[in-house]
Design brief:
This protein has about 290 residues and is an alpha/beta fold. The protein contains twelve helices and ten strands. The strands form two sheets. The protein has an eight-stranded parallel beta barrel, surrounded by four helices. The protein has a two-stranded antiparallel ribbon with strand order 9-10. Strand 9 and strand 10 form a beta hairpin. Helix 11 crosses helix 12. Ligand LIB3CWND binds next to strand 1, helix 1 and helix 7. Keywords: Lyase, Magnesium, Metal-binding. Its cofactor is Mg(2+).
Length: about 290
């Protein structure tokens, strides 16, 4: 069953008000952050608040990820221990750059005897991470890694490399595509990074549409005001869903059973389009099932 992942909203674990609001928001998922949105002095308190929020449950269909601190920080092991206790849907590990990083996380899962239901998500946000994206994604072939998806991190890439984040994202597109392609080869979910200009509604809409067109499954967000536009961009339009159903119905007809290509409403349709149609319908059904 496909899970809708159009919109995953970051919120600082130190912000009690944000955590409280999380259960009412229309986001498909929530990323409770212990890393960059939380100051060093607030890490312990944020960890406790996230533990209490996840343990209290009540998030409905929303997927809940906890972003832990990076593996070179003094906090990540305590963060993982907390996650192992309260069992979110997944942990999101920032700045993962090598297969060895994933092995370190897997060892820690094992040491904690962490519930296998906790999936692993990694941020692709270092130069090495981008260059090794396919090698990292291939780790999903080993079930012990629990690897479920990538989250693209343009801010850290820009910080490390000097590659600038420009309107239209021309400088980021090659890296974004590398991330999406690596994810697709190994069956992972790929989520785009956040858009920081909270007040710029048109800019957000354009970036969501671009992320969708580049193949991302959804986008990470930083403010509740961004959720509706993001959901709209990643929801298959009703006309596309109707067309997808028509394609499947056409291939079901007895006269088309043995055919690879048919004509539908004046257009050539092949069985590969039926595969695309099945995915469109699965996403639309999952969104409907989630009641959003
Ligand atoms: C950016 C913010 C600090 C702005 O906060 P604020 O000034 O409080 O905004 P508003 O006054 O407009 O807030 C209105 C109400 O909405 C709630 N709110 C705000 N943001 C969130 C949120 N993210 N989740 C849930 N609720 C939120 C406020 O509490 C207000 O509520 P109310 O009191 O009822 O009116 C803030 O938006 C924020 O902290 N955003 C998240 C920042 C974050 O998590 N950053 C880390 C992820 S991005 C990243 O790491 C980059 C990546 O790794 C890379 O490298 O690219
Ligand atoms: Mg980052």
């Amino acid at each position: 069953m496909i899970r809708p992942r159009r919109s995953l909203l970051f919120m600082p674990g130190s912000n009690a008000r944000a955590l409280e609001k999380a259960r009412l928001l229309a986001a498909d998922g929530l990323i409770l952050d212990l890393e960059d949105a939380v100051a060093p002095d607030a890490k312990a308190q944020a960890r406790e608040q996230i533990a209490a929020a996840v343990a209290a449950k009540g998030f409905g269909h929303r997927e809940v990820l906890v972003r832990i601190n990076a593996l070179d920080s003094p906090w990540w092991q305590d963060d993982m221990a907390m996650a192992a206790n309260v069992v979110p849907d997944g942990i999101l590990v920032p700045k993962v750059s090598s297969v060895e990083d994933i092995a370190t996380i897997v060892s820690q899962f094992a040491a904690l005897k962490a519930d296998p239901a906790i999936r692993l998500w990694i941020m692709i946000e270092t130069a090495r991470g981008v260059l090794h994206a396919e090698e990292l994604a291939a780790q999903a072939q080993n079930p012990q890694t629990r690897l479920a998806g990538f989250v693209f991190g343009p801010n850290d890439i820009s910080r490390e490399t000097g590659i600038r984040m420009l309107p239209g994202r021309s400088t980021m597109i090659p890296m974004m595509l590398n991330c999406v392609l690596a994810a697709r080869v190994h069956g992972l979910v790929a989520l785009d990074g956040p858009y920081s200009d909270i007040a710029n509604v048109d800019g957000l809409g354009a970036e969501c549409a671009q992320a969708r067109d580049l193949g991302f499954d959804g986008k990470t967000l930083i403010h509740p005001g961004q959720i509706d536009a993001c959901n709209a961009a990643f929801t298959p339009p009703a006309a596309d869903v109707a067309q997808a159903r028509a394609i499947l119905a056409a291939f079901e007809r007895p006269e088309n059973q043995g055919r690879g290509a048919i004509q539908l409403d004046g257009r050539m349709v092949e069985r590969l389009h039926a595969e695309i149609a099945k995915k469109t319908i699965a996403i639309a059904d999952a969104i409907e099932l989630a009641g959003r």
